[in-house]
Write a structure and sequence with these properties.
single chain, 393 residues, alpha/beta, TIM Barrel, 42% helix, globular, binds flavin mononucleotide
């Protein structure tokens, strides 16, 4: 099993330990952008509590000395059944953040997805970390779609993740409370929050400005997008609310490699996606950042797996522990993803942080596989997990 050879991060024993350290490291605008969910954050909380509603039912005396947590996905072998979700603005949390995340994922043999809202040109990332998946938000008009797909392919990405849960921009109230916007607007408060985080200011933002200039949304479209800090520039959020499955089918025709749709929550949509030729699904509510009150992905995972048994179904949202991973896999997921924890880890300690986060989750999975009485992940099934309701009289 590939294992990143970077030292552990002091005081971090579980993924949740990264968060308070990242909070101290990042200006409040950026911390809020990662941390907050939409509106009253019910979906954000629900993503975690869904895992608590399932209990594990371990097997005993099965001989578990031959454990392997490797999985096969789209013809590749991955060393662990988890990956790094696409998260925008990675290079603002850690110096060259997108390279840090994708590089460590590659070193550890797990999938990582580069966000379409990232700040390092996709060509640079594809070259440094071959095998990274690319996530796109479909542009609203066909000419832009074609140009973007051509660029992604030219850059060398094989696997495309299409995020479909953003027909309009989300309600930014929690970001506004903390002074976050895209682009960030220069203000006294922004300057003060930056100055009060000198390690971030010098080590991440200042270093980036000096060496690479002002970060821009490099991968939103085929052409370069807006800068991350600007008093006047507007981001191109041209209309996308007319998009429907016919647009998806056009992309399917144009993209020859594995095509994954991210953000489905209904088994009916999973079947439409299957019929439209998708290769995989990520069940996701965008980490509780879209419609507040949206069901937790874990809760709809079993019905989606039942509806499209021929497809690899993956999920993200609230995965923080090895036991969460085993619960999701017992309910039918082939692989899970996590977003916030890896980005906090990058903010706290760069490459060593991400390597440590991967190691923590991997070790927890290995230990929990032994405690569950299994050697291989395909031994996980619905008999090893029980929903809380099944214990009620
Ligand atoms: C700060 C932030 C930015 C995100 N940006 C994107 C993005 O650009 N594209 C996308 O498909 N999902 C994006 N997501 C959603 C993640 O891919 C993922 O679905 C979510 O983070 C999973 O939940 P978790 O953070 O609880 O693990 C973002 C999430 C966060 C926290």
């Amino acid at each position: 099993m590939p294992s990143p050879r970077l030292p552990p991060v002091p005081r971090v024993h579980a993924l949740r330990d990264f968060e308070p350290l990242a909070r101290k490291r990042l200006p409040r605008q950026l911390y809020s952008y990662i941390h907050n969910g939409a509106d009253d954050e019910r979906s954000l909380a629900g993503n975690r509590s869904a895992f608590d509603d399932y209990s594990l039912v371990p097997r005993m005396l099965t001989g578990v000395s031959g454990r392997s947590q490797a999985i096969e996905l789209f013809g590749q072998t991955y060393a662990s059944p988890f990956g790094i979700s696409p998260v925008g603005l990675g290079a603002m949390y850690a110096y060259r953040g997108d390279l840090v995340l994708t590089g460590q994922a590659r070193a550890a043999g797990i999938p990582a997805v580069l966000s379409g809202s990232s700040l390092i040109p996709m060509e640079t990332v594809a070259q440094a970390a071959p095998g990274t998946w690319f996530q796109a938000y479909m542009p609203g008009d066909p000419a832009r779609v074609e140009a973007l797909l051509a660029r992604i392919e030219r850059a060398g990405f094989g696997t495309l993740v299409l995020t479909v849960d953003l027909p309009v921009m989300v309600n930014p109230e929690n970001y506004l409370r903390n002074g976050f916007s895209t682009p960030l607007r220069p203000s006294l408060r922004l300057a003060w929050d930056g100055l009060s985080r000198p390690r971030w200011l010098l080590g991440t933002f200042g270093r980036t400005l000096l060496r690479h200039g002002m970060p821009h949304f490099e991968n939103w479209r085929a052409e370069r997008g807006a800068p991350i800090v600007s008093a006047t520039v507007q981001r191109d959020f041209l209309a996308r609310d007319h998009l429907d499955w016919s647009h998806f089918r056009l992309i399917r025709q144009a993209w020859k490699g594995p095509l994954i749709v991210k953000g489905l929550m209904r088994w009916q949509d999973a079947q439409i996606a299957r019929d439209a030729g998708v290769d995989g699904i990520v069940v996701s509510n965008h980490g509780g950042r879209q419609i507040d009150g949206a069901v937790a992905p874990l809760r709809v995972l079993p019905e989606i797996c039942r509806a499209v048994p021929e497809l690899p179904v993956m999920m993200d949202g609230g995965v923080r522990r090895g036991s969460d991973v085993l619960k999701a896999l017992s309910l039918g997921a082939r692989c899970v993803f996590a977003g916030r924890p890896f980005n906090y880890a990058a903010a706290v300690a760069g490459e060593a942080g991400v390597a440590h986060a991967i190691r923590i989750l991997r070790d927890e999975i290995d230990r929990n596989m032994a405690l569950m009485g299994i050697n291989r992940l395909d031994e996980l099934d619905a008999t090893l997990v029980r929903h809380i309701d099944s214990f009620r009289p």
